[in-house]
Amino acid sequence: MVLEYGTYSVISPEGCASILWKDGSKTEEAAARLKMTAPDLLRLGVVDRVVEEPAGGAHQDYDDAARKVEAAIVEALRELETTGGAEDLVEDRYRRFRSMGAFVA
Q1: Cβ atoms within 10 Å of 61's Cβ, excluding its own
Q2: What share of the chain is helix, strand, coil (3-state, %, to 5)?
Q3: How far apart are CA 29 and CA 43, in angstroms?
Q4: Strand partners, 50
Q5: Which of 23, 34, 57, 62 is most buried, by CB atoms within 10 Å?
Q6: Which burial class, exposed, middle or buried, applies to 82 when counting CB atoms under 10 A from its CB (0-12, 13-18, 19+)?
Q7: The pTM is what?
Q8: pLDDT of residue 85
């Protein structure tokens, strides 16, 4: 899971721009190419779901953000109860992580 305005990447956009183009002014281009936003992560299968944040972001209302995260976790755990078991879950995760980074035309 990732919060609605959350990001995830193995490198910062600044670091990426510095390595790829030796140019810190290309930070925005690097960020776009890294596909690090919550919608990108969902579309690419890196996360299972995006958790909605309170208006203005989680930092505007910690209690509401915590309630939303809790509800998402509870829902995910309920969904796991209906799966085929631990072996199926492990196999699914294995396939999923092996496919990450694979180029699909």
Answers
A1: 15
A2: 60, 5, 35
A3: 19
A4: 2
A5: 34
A6: exposed
A7: 0.81
A8: 83
